[in-house]
């Protein structure tokens, strides 16, 4: 719209200019000065129109600053058209005269007296009153909301509410009226007096007394104000931080970061000058950051960005550079900083380290000229480092051998020996490297690296050794030599256990197939491995892994046949020889049993499966057939409604949930509902709960004394409301809850009759109108 | 009736051998006897370590010192703590609490008492509901912490038998054990030679203090077996098939040839219940006050002994019933049948709750452990199997025994005993909670006649065996729960206490119809009737009061809530809902397809040749 208007005004302007241009050619007014001024005017006009586009003084009409060419009664100049004509202006004569003043006054009076507005009709007035009253009362009542909420959520309410303040009688007051009488008491008092123990008065220190006194109102107010201010400040800062966080400019952030880093560096330098210990702490922080960096993969070209860059790096120099930068950053971050007190720290380390390190330290110190021997020790080159890094992989083998060899001996001593040997080896290696590298230049940083790595490495080997010791101790019983076997030994029992857990079949069948397979029963029986054997086989060929996932899936379906027919290991290793001196009759009976078993087996399974099938069928929901024979077609004996019709009128029952014994071939679980037990169950959800599981959670913990301790039982069964017998329970008062009594006057609004209130207001209104 | 502490039949054991055996079935009322401790101590230190590995001792909460209420670390030595906190808080009097704060409780123990099943996901809940849930969870935590803290009072630890390396504990004879233990414990091993009245059935009372036994030829007796004080001894002049204490030792149910009889502890016949005839086995469900009887006629009858009514008479339709046991966890009765199945029964259902096919031959014996987790069965196929009862009913382990087990029983701590002919084998579990491993028997014992009845004595490391030669009470270290609940089953209760307990137990009687496979089902909402009621309500009202009201766009600022825009907004929300629905249904379809595919293998041309 505004654009439209602007266009219009521009149009008007151009027309106007045309209009103005016309008289320019006119010889009468055509003078050089005027021509100049004319140009100026035009310019001004243009400026004005443009400024009017801004919107504020859009309405201001153009003024004419010169007399128009033709002055006649037909042509009225538009000068002063924006002003309003006031009555007083008309009255005012050219010269002021006193005679008109009275008229003017009268006029003023007339003007000041307005006509009385028509009074609102009754309904409207009442409505307004009601609204006001409602607002006021709701405001007053809203004060009670938190209290009501609190009372509703309270575990227990005790009525009457107002508690009698327990009379706080300090012990000294009690004591003042009491004197030692018996000899024992006197003796005790004597002792107390001797030790200058405060007996009566100063049992409470002034501080305690002060704390006992309640906080005064003013204090509380001040404190609240303080808190408010703090909160406000916090919110400002938070808002600011949020704002800054939202800034997307990378450059801005980069600059900010750099500035911060600079500042931090400056501060740190200052700190170093002023307070070296604090600086050390700072350094430690940096060290920690280094550790974190070492742990993380943040700058190690493993992120998404880095990977994408790595692809690009082949073709793009910038990408390559960026990657390198990142790596450099990583290196920078992971570089160890120089800490003056490092050696001290090392000394304060664990005993083991103390045991092992000193030799090297002494050497270093002898070599050293500077203050820090670690810094000046000869460095190991990168190659050396690599060698050391390789070491841990090589090491475990001989180590394990050692361990296994020493197993027969007393373990502890052996372990220590091995440890010592280990470190001696290491130390010698390090020495050698030192000798090699002595001639080379001193690169402090690199030495640092290597040292730290060595320490780390030592620790690692230590922990490894500990672990291995643990393992070897576990399998003490078996006299196995080497590590690989040890590692194999561990999973074995698991497998065995698994095999025992479920004697799982090799082949898997569904229920339907079962019967068919029964015929092949004997054949299958041969196939069936004994569970332990199975376990063995599993162990032997790990190549089976390709099959295993499939197998596992199917294994859930347990073969019934197998379940019953797998031969379980027989107990023959009874400690007491339990060879039964079988009576002849018993032997006979046994034989009979054997025969019975031989014939019984198949029948048992088949019967069971049949029974199960029947049970499944019976529990299935029944379809409803609504076909009416003879409806819409011929009916009679021997005629059946057509299949199409039957299909159309068959209401299929919804499929119920899967049976619990679906995957358990040897079990029939009754799915029928125990209606007698259901009568005891909850069947209506109480109020705040919308789902039965929510409610179940709240009733799952038993509250009876059988399951709980006495205290817990009492707490769980406390009544929700406790009333004191013989006490009047008065309605809650504002003072009791902590409000000032003034709120009561607010409340009084409530009690007033709204009708009367409106009538009162009406009267007032009437009075006003009369005035 | 004679009773003679029987010495071991074999050569008296050598002294050095005895040194190896260590056993401590010590109770708190027993003084720590010098000989046992002396024997216990000289073991090599290595062995000790192994002991700890095998049986993790209960962490002693008194030594755990940490500020948090539940500490993750099981033990923090005292010294460490002191060093860490050199200045504990000082009270006004100047005395200082060396262990400030509440005593911490180990997490595992607390976890044991937590009962809220957090595996089930909850739908999104409103704040009010969430409040309630939070309160419930906090309550659970608090109560479980309290319960865990009270574990401190369970001062007794179970004893156990342990051989030196390579030594088989099964080779240890009863005589050796008797020699090794203190006198009080040794007195618990005894034999009653009762050859006259044929094989005996026996039953211990719930407190483990009293023993009742009945010989097949009519001999019925009850005695306080610890003091060996005879309460009554009669001959009912009829075949006695089974005998059982009712809720207290004052009442005794005897399954006789024709009917079921009830006697009091004086031997006076109180009732003759003719509706239970030809009873072969008896079981008593103490919390429901139900006496379950299995009869030759194939009926399982529940008799409520508190009101004297028959609650249910169920026809098992499986012929003669003579194998029965009850599950202490859910009070379900397990019946063994001749067709190799074990059926699970509750009085509320006419059909079995479940049927498990266990053996190829008939089932000879069934036993369920005290936690209701494992069931041991033995069948005519000479197999002994252990089943998992937690929903899967699958066998965990199986063994073939030379003669098959005719009787089985579990102890309170999960030891399994099997009576095979005249030999009794006992298997122990590997850990605290696992099933008994059938690899190696823990103990064996041979009796003077074939076994006819077996039961572990509650709260005593004693196994009672009834056989044709009488009754044998053998010592089985580590069989029973060392700590008893004095309010629940107190072996030392007086008559008055017993009477009070009786009243309380009757007040807390569980209705018979609540017996079902999952006893925690009572804490669940009856969803089916809930939905039914909801449906009915909707029908009655003509609309769903809980249904989400359709979206009604709010009127916006002047000029912006024209009818067109309102409709547009409405349509937007509707479309969004629709899209959600479509997305969900698509996902479901995909899910179904995924499920369906693997089961239906591709038919191959060769299938026609397979039959």
From TrEMBL, chain A:
Transmembrane segments: none annotated. It holds the Pfam family Utp14. It is found in: Nucleus, Nucleolus. Residues 316-343 form a coiled coil. The keyword Coiled coil applies. Its main location: nucleus. Residues 436-445, 739-751 have a biased composition (Polar residues). The keyword Lipoprotein does not apply. One of its GO terms (cellular component) is small-subunit processome. Residues 753-771 have a biased composition (Basic residues). Keywords: Coiled coil, Nucleus, Phosphoprotein. InterPro entries: SSU_processome_Utp14. Residues 21-50, 383-411, 429-449, 466-504, 518-556, 739-771 are annotated as: Disordered. GO terms for biological process: rRNA processing. Residues 384-394 have a biased composition (Acidic residues). Signal peptide: none annotated. Residues 527-536 have a biased composition (Basic and acidic residues). Belongs to the UTP14 family. This is U3 small nucleolar RNA-associated protein 14 homolog A. It comes from Prolemur simus (Greater bamboo lemur).
UniProtKB/TrEMBL annotation, chain B:
Residues 1-19, 573-584 have a biased composition (Basic and acidic residues). Residues 441-519 form the BING4 C-terminal domain. WD repeats lie at residues 356-390. Residues 57-84, 591-600 have a biased composition (Basic residues). InterPro entries: BING4_C_dom, WD40/YVTN_repeat-like_dom_sf, WD40_repeat_dom_sf, WD40_rpt, WDR46/Utp7. It holds the Pfam family BING4CT. The keyword Nucleus applies. SMART domains: BING4CT, WD40. PROSITE patterns: WD_REPEATS_2. One of its GO terms (biological process) is maturation of SSU-rRNA from tricistronic rRNA transcript (SSU-rRNA, 5.8S rRNA, LSU-rRNA). PANTHER family: WD REPEAT-CONTAINING PROTEIN 46 (PTHR14085:SF3), WD-REPEAT PROTEIN BING4 (PTHR14085). Part of the small subunit (SSU) processome, composed of more than 70 proteins and the RNA chaperone small nucleolar RNA (snoRNA) U3. Interacts with DDX21, NCL, NOP2 and EBNA1BP2. This is WD repeat-containing protein 46. It comes from Prolemur simus (Greater bamboo lemur).
């Amino acid at each position: 719209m505004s654009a439209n208007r602007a266009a219009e005004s521009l149009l008007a302007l151009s027309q106007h200019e045309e209009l103005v241009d016309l008289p320019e050619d006119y010889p009468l007014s055509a003078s050089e000065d005027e021509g100049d001024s004319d140009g100026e005017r035009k310019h001004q006009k243009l400026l004005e129109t443009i400024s009017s586009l801004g919107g504020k003084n859009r309405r201001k009409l153009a003024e004419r600053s010169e007399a128009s060419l033709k002055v006649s009664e037909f042509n009225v100049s538009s000068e002063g058209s924006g002003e309003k004509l006031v009555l007083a202006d008309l009255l005012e004569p050219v010269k002021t005269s006193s005679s008109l003043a009275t008229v003017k006054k009268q006029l003023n009076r007339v003007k000041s007296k307005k006509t009385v507005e028509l009074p609102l009709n009754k309904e409207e007035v009442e409505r307004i009153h009601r609204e006001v009253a409602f607002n006021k009362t709701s405001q007053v009542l809203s004060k009670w909301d938190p209290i009501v909420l609190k009372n509703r959520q309270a575990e227990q309410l005790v009525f009457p509410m107002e508690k009698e303040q327990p009379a706080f009688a300090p012990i000294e007051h009690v004591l003042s009226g009491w004197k030692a009488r018996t000899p024992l008491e006197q003796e005790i008092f004597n002792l107390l007096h001797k030790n200058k123990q405060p007996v009566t008065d100063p049992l409470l220190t002034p501080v305690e007394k002060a704390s006992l006194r309640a906080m005064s109102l003013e204090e509380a107010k001040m404190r609240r104000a303080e808190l408010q201010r703090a909160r406000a400040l916090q919110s400002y800062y938070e808002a600011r931080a949020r704002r800054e966080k939202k800034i997307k400019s990378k450059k801005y952030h980069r600059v900010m970061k750099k500035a911060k880093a600079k500042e931090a560096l400056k501060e740190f330098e200052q700190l170093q000058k002023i307070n070296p210990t604090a600086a050390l702490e700072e350094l430690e922080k940096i060290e920690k950051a280094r550790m974190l960096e070492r742990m993380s993969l943040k700058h190690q070209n493993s992120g998404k960005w880095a990977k994408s860059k790595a692809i690009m790096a082949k073709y793009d120099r910038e990408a390559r550079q960026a990657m390198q930068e990142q790596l450099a950053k990583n290196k920078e971050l992971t570089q160890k900083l120089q800490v003056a007190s490092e050696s001290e720290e090392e000394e304060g380390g664990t005993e083991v380290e103390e045991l092992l390190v000193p030799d090297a330290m002494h050497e270093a110190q002898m070599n050293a000229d500077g203050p820090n021997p670690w810094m000046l020790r000869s460095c190991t080159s990168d190659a050396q480092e690599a060698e050391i890094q390789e070491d841990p992989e090589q090491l475990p083998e001989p180590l394990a051998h050692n361990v296994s060899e020493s197993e027969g001996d007393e373990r502890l001593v052996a372990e220590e020996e091995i440890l010592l040997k280990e470190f001696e080896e290491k130390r010698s290696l390090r020495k050698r490297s030192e000798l090699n590298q002595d001639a080379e230049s001193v690169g402090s940083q690199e030495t640092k690296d290597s040292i730290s790595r060595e320490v780390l490495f030592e620790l690692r080997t230590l922990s490894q050794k500990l672990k291995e010791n643990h393992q070897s101790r576990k399998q003490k019983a078996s006299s196995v030599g080497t590590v690989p076997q040890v590692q194999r030994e561990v999973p074995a029992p698991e497998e065995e256990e698994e095999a025992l857990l479920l004697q799982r079949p090799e082949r898997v069948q569904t229920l339907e197939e079962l019967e068919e397979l029964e015929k092949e029963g004997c054949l299958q029986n041969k196939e069936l491995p004994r569970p332990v054997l199975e376990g063995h086989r599993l162990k032997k060929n790990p190549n089976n892994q390709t099959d295993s996932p499939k197998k596992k899936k199917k294994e859930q379906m347990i073969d019934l046949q197998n379940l019953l027919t797998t031969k379980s290991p027989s107990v023959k290793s009874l400690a007491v020889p339990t060879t039964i001196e079988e009576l002849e009759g018993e032997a006979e009976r046994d034989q009979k049993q054997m025969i019975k078993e031989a014939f019984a087996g198949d029948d048992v399974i088949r019967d069971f499966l049949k029974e199960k099938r029947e049970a499944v069928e019976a529990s299935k929901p029944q379809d409803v057939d609504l076909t009416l024979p003879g409806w819409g077609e011929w009916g009679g004996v021997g005629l059946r409604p057509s299949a199409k019709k039957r299909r159309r009128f068959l209401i299929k029952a919804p499929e119920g949930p899967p049976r619990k014994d679906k995957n358990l071939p040897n079990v029939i679980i009754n799915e029928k509902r125990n209606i007698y037990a259901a009568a005891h169950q909850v069947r209506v959800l109480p109020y705040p709960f919308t789902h039965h599981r929510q409610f179940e959670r709240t009733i799952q913990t038993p509250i009876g004394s059988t399951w709980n301790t006495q205290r817990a039982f009492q707490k769980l069964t406390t009544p929700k409301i406790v009333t004191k017998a013989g006490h009047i329970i008065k309605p809650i008062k504002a003072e009791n809850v902590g409000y000032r009594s003034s709120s009561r006057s607010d409340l009084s609004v409530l009690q007033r009759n709204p009708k009367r209130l409106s009538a009162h207001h009406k009267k007032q209104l009437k009075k006003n109108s009369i005035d | 009736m004679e009773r003679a502490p029987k010495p071991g039949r074999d050569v008296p054991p050598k002294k050095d051998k005895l040194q190896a055996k260590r056993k401590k079935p010590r109770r708190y009322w027993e003084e720590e006897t010098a000989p046992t401790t002396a024997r216990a101590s000289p073991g090599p230190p290595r062995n000790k370590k192994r002991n700890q590995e095998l049986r993790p001792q209960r962490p002693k909460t008194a030594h755990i010192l940490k500020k948090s209420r539940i500490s993750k670390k099981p033990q923090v030595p005292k010294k460490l703590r002191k060093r860490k906190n050199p200045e504990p808080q000082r009270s006004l009097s100047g005395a200082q609490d060396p262990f400030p704060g509440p005593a911490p409780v180990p997490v595992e123990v607390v976890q044991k008492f937590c009962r809220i099943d957090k595996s089930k996901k909850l739908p999104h809940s409103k704040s009010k509901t969430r409040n309630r849930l939070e309160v419930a969870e906090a309550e659970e935590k608090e109560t479980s912490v309290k319960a865990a803290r009270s574990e401190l009072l369970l001062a007794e630890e179970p004893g156990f038998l342990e051989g030196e390396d390579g030594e088989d504990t099964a080779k240890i004879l009863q005589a050796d054990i008797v020699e090794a233990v203190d006198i009080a414990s040794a007195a618990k091993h005894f034999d009653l030679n009762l050859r006259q009245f044929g094989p005996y059935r026996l039953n211990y009372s719930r407190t483990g203090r009293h023993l009742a036994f009945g010989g097949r030829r009519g001999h019925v007796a009850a005695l306080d077996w610890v003091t060996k004080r005879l309460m009554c001894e009669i001959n009912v002049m009829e075949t006695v098939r089974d005998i059982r204490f009712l809720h207290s030792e004052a009442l005794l149910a005897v399954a006789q040839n024709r009917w079921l009889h009830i006697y009091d502890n004086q031997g006076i016949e109180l009732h003759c219940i003719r509706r239970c005839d030809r009873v072969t086995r008896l079981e008593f469900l103490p919390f429901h006050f139900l006496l379950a009887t299995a009869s030759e006629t194939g009926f399982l009858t529940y008799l409520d002994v508190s009101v004297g009514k028959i609650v249910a008479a169920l026809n098992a339709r499986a012929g003669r019933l003579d194998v029965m046991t009850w599950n202490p966890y859910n009070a379900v009765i397990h019946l063994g049948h001749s067709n190799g199945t074990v059926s699970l029964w509750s009085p509320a259902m006419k059909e079995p709750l479940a049927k498990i096919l266990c053996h190829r031959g008939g089932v000879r014996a069934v036993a369920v452990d005290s936690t209701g987790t494992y069931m041991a069965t033995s069948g005519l196929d000479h197999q002994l199997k252990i089943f998992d009862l937690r929903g899967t009913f699958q066998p965990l382990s199986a063994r073939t025994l030379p003669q098959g087990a005719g009787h089985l029983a579990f102890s309170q701590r999960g030891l399994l005993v099997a009576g095979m002919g005249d030999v009794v084998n006992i298997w122990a579990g590997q850990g605290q909670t696992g099933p008994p491993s059938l690899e190696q028997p823990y103990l064996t014992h041979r009796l003077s006649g074939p076994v006819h009845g077996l039961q572990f004595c509650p709260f005593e490391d004693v196994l009672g065996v009834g056989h044709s030669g009488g009754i044998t009470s053998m010592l089985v270290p580590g069989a029973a729960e060392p700590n008893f609940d004095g309010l629940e089953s107190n072996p030392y209760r007086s008559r008055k206490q017993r009477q009070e307990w009786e009243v309380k137990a009757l007040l807390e009687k569980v209705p018979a119809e609540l017996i079902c496979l999952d006893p925690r089902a009572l804490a669940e909402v009856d969803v089916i009737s809930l939905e039914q009621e909801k449906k009915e309500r909707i029908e009655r009202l003509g609309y769903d009061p809980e249904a989400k009201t359709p979206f009604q766009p709010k009127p916006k600022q002047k000029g912006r809530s024209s009818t067109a825009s309102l409709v547009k907004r409405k349509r937007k929300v509707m479309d969004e809902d629709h899209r959600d629905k479509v997305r969900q249904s698509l996902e479901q379809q995909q899910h179904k397809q995924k499920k369906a595919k693997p089961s239906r293998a591709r038919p191959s041309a060769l299938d026609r040749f397979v039959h």
